[in-house]
Amino acid sequence: GTPKYSGMVEDCCCDYETVDNLNKEVLYPSLQELVKTPFFRYFKVKLWCDCPFWPDDGMCRLRDCSVCECSENEFPESFKNPDRLPLNDPVCQEGKPEAAVDRTLDNKAFRGWTEIDNPWTNDDETDNDEMTYVNLLLNPERYTGYTGPSARRIWDAVYSENCPKYLSQESCQEEKILYKLISGLHSSISVHIASDYLLDEATNMWGQNLTLMYDRVLQYPDRVRNLYFTFLFVLRAVTKAADYLEQAEYNTGSHNEDLKTQSFIKQLLYNSKLQAACPVPFDEAKLWRGQSGPELKQKIQHQFRNISALMDCVGCEKCRLWGKLQVLGLGTALKILFSENGQENLVQTLQLQRNEVIALMNLLNRLSESVKFVHEMGPTAERITEGH
Ligand code: FAD
């Protein structure tokens, strides 16, 4: 393990070792299965580069940035509209043969799910016109070659304008949390770049880049801590919404697959090991308590919405896809933990969209992968890098 990280995860009630063990034994294996199911592998997203801040930013032209949208035949039956017109221009991005664009939406696919806007995000989630489905399995989050000023200014804007790193004890708890969530997500993105890196362009050889992981994440212990914090925060949201998620419909038209999805969900939510070792991974009840609670919540919601809007400026499609998914996932976690109607009766008061649930679980899976990679490869990365 990483002995550097011992004791309790900040603001949490379980220690690093417990989190690593739980992740390895319970969370990681079931999440890996869950995200492969037809329900969880298609994400609805507006991929236009619609940047409100820097209108000059073009789309990324690098091959590895392109997103393969769903081809028709791999789209779950129930997502399709039987009366749909044939696609007149199924453009395959950057020559990937199975990548025809399917922009049709079918209400049946959203049976039992409400279409409501998430107050934490910038996109109007009820506006289906500009949305497209993407098969996440075809588009793993990994190195894309997106760097330089375009990437840099997004992160700069995220941190400087919307969640400044707290320098003193003055910042309130809630603002610290926003910073930690974003920093944890940033660590996770860097870990994915490091775990799946284009090592040799000429031979198209992909593999791990442990030096990169050290340089960007491991040498800053607070970035590792923030990754664990974000993981537990999202995990808490998922377990808090357990009853809601258990009762939700995972209907994709394929009965066997849907039963599997349901059973993976149960495995994850009602796991006795998880309940014994870390029943409340984050305690949200102590937040927004002060006098300025409601104002503060509005302010932080506004900041988070700005961060979400910044995702439209990410100049690389695949990065934009995962940026949007993960920010929506965080927004969904925030919505679950801080929804107006508080603690009780969440099953009755909470309303989640299908897409929010997909984003939430895929985000949790990404964070789980990052925690696992840091835990397993961290010591090696430190050894080879510090040895130089
Ligand atoms: P960056 O990662 O760009 O970091 C910029 C600055 O932020 C750092 O110098 C540091 O001061 C600070 N910082 C870095 N990490 C943290 C942290 N964890 N907590 C707090 N502060 C931090 N590239 C890909 O190859 N694949 C992707 O899928 C991908 N997705 C992206 C998604 C989004 C939303 C964005 C904005 C960028 C994405 N990128 C992706 C680009 C990638 O994140 C980096 O910006 C790029 O690789 C350049 O890295 P860098 O070393 O300059 O540092």
From TrEMBL:
<feature type="binding site">
    <location>
        <position position="183"/>
    </location>
    <ligand>
        <name>FAD</name>
    </ligand>
</feature>
<feature type="active site" description="Nucleophile">
    <location>
        <position position="316"/>
    </location>
</feature>
<comment type="similarity">
    <text>Belongs to the EROs family.</text>
</comment>
<keyword id="KW-0249">Electron transport</keyword>
<dbReference type="GO" id="GO:0016972">
    <property type="term" value="F:thiol oxidase activity"/>
</dbReference>
<keyword id="KW-0325">Glycoprotein</keyword>
<keyword id="KW-0285">Flavoprotein</keyword>
<keyword id="KW-0472">Membrane</keyword>
<dbReference type="GO" id="GO:0034975">
    <property type="term" value="P:protein folding in endoplasmic reticulum"/>
</dbReference>
<keyword id="KW-0560">Oxidoreductase</keyword>
<keyword id="KW-0732">Signal</keyword>
<keyword id="KW-1015">Disulfide bond</keyword>
<protein>
    <submittedName>
        <fullName>Endoplasmic reticulum oxidoreductin-1-like</fullName>
    </submittedName>
</protein>
<keyword id="KW-0676">Redox-active center</keyword>
<feature type="binding site">
    <location>
        <position position="144"/>
    </location>
    <ligand>
        <name>FAD</name>
    </ligand>
</feature>
<dbReference type="GO" id="GO:0015035">
    <property type="term" value="F:protein-disulfide reductase activity"/>
</dbReference>
<keyword id="KW-0274">FAD</keyword>
<feature type="binding site">
    <location>
        <position position="186"/>
    </location>
    <ligand>
        <name>FAD</name>
    </ligand>
</feature>
<keyword id="KW-0256">Endoplasmic reticulum</keyword>
<feature type="binding site">
    <location>
        <position position="142"/>
    </location>
    <ligand>
        <name>FAD</name>
    </ligand>
</feature>
<feature type="binding site">
    <location>
        <position position="216"/>
    </location>
    <ligand>
        <name>FAD</name>
    </ligand>
</feature>
<keyword id="KW-0813">Transport</keyword>
<feature type="binding site">
    <location>
        <position position="155"/>
    </location>
    <ligand>
        <name>FAD</name>
    </ligand>
</feature>
<feature type="disulfide bond" description="Redox-active">
    <location>
        <begin position="316"/>
        <end position="319"/>
    </location>
</feature>
<dbReference type="GO" id="GO:0005789">
    <property type="term" value="C:endoplasmic reticulum membrane"/>
</dbReference>
<dbReference type="GO" id="GO:0071949">
    <property type="term" value="F:FAD binding"/>
</dbReference>
<comment type="subunit">
    <text>May function both as a monomer and a homodimer.</text>
</comment>
<feature type="disulfide bond" description="Redox-active">
    <location>
        <begin position="60"/>
        <end position="65"/>
    </location>
</feature>
<feature type="active site">
    <location>
        <position position="319"/>
    </location>
</feature>
